[in-house]
Amino acid sequence: MPGVPSGRGCDGCRKQKKKCDQAKPSCSRCARLKMACVGAGQQRYKFKEQNGTQNAIAIPRRTKEQNGTGTTIIMPQRTKEEYTSFDMIDVLKTVPHTPSSKLTLATDEFVGTIKMSTSVRYNLVYWYGEFLKDIPARLGRNGALDTAVEALTAAHSSFCLYHRATPEALVKYSTALRTLRFYLDDPVKASSSETLCAVMLLLICQGFHGTSSVRWTGHCEGAAQILKARRYYDPNDEFESKLHLSLRGPVVFEGLFNPKIQFSPSEWKTLVDNHIDENTFPGKMMRYVSHVTSMIRHGHLRKGDSNDQKAVDELRTNYQTLKAGLKTYEDYMDSLKPIDKDLRKIAFDAHTYQLVERFYSFGLTVGVILACVLSAFDTEDKGLISDMNSFANGIMALAHHARLFKPLGASYMQLCFQAAWVGTTDPLVRAEAEKEMAEYLADFGTGYTIEQLVPEMEKISRHLRLIDPYTM
Questions:
Q1: Whole-model pTM?
Q2: Is the sign of the CA dihedral 94, 100, 104, 109 positive or negative?
Q3: Residue-range domains of the chain with CATH
């Protein structure tokens, strides 16, 4: 019963016998009618009965020959080379694959969220990491990863179509959580890169479904425990290296505030070291934030005092290096934009510019964090206040361009807006940051209001300035 390929239109268009443009995440007809678009672009197969039992691959073509007694026998027709090179492994490789299982369909749906034809505004790979491209080849070997992929695909679809979590998406998310807990109870399974990947996927899912806290994600604590138990990543495993690159950021930034994420000073350093971006500006930024987190967690800091002068001196050096790097990035961004408006349409490398702009936004955010902590020691340095206002103004200047890539493409800006609010002394800039944060929270359906947000920002500001530790 072989599978015969059929159309790739969505279920709704196929049922009504309408032509489907197979757009992602929703075809134009379903988007216009506000219908759930299921199956657009997916290859389907019709199953037909095949007469006879001949296997054209495993059984070579036959010819009739006479033996010495005059009896006609059937002999395979092969060349000499075919006799010597025939291998059953080669046969198995040539058997046509007929996708029909639940896992294969889930894989096909997931691929739709990461392929290049999916809009930048909704593309998971572009905003969450290159490791996603390697996931399809790893499905079927780890139940936690399989269910996490199904949960992420459902969450992504419901978010893109309705900007809210559908019952189906929540059920798959709940199933993925139960499966992950089962795998985490097994030390061997818990330490696998596939299980770690499942944690990262559920972290992304939680962003789609909305969280009940501005700072807490929940899954970062689990990811931190796995990373702590593993102690290191395998640099020879490209998938694991790229996964570590994407996962370390949420853990380090949440570790600034979440006391449940605990590492020793050496473990904080190991957490952010990655050979892929070892000598790059983004890699250095992660090390700077990790250093500050380690100071706050282990330095017993009080405003204007520290028992580790070496760590404070390193913070000052990191801050000056960061400022120089930001100036370089700013100049590079300007060089990417053609001066002549007529040339901009054909000469503007939008992809590179967006990537540089994202790193620059994170750099401004890290600048605010480092300057806040440093201001607790260098209380007479008025330049730090000026720098933080400059960083905040720079973040808000990027807000308009970031809007072009909402919702997913601008999701990282929420962290940047929080930094702008903390760093500025200008009431107008702070009000603008509050407005942007409120819009972001509304996009992701967190249920958080601006009245709840402002007290959280006050606590974050006092925590970074080493006045009061952040509390729930």
A1: 0.72
A2: positive
A3: 1-43 (4.10.240.10), 103-272 (no CATH), 299-464 (no CATH)
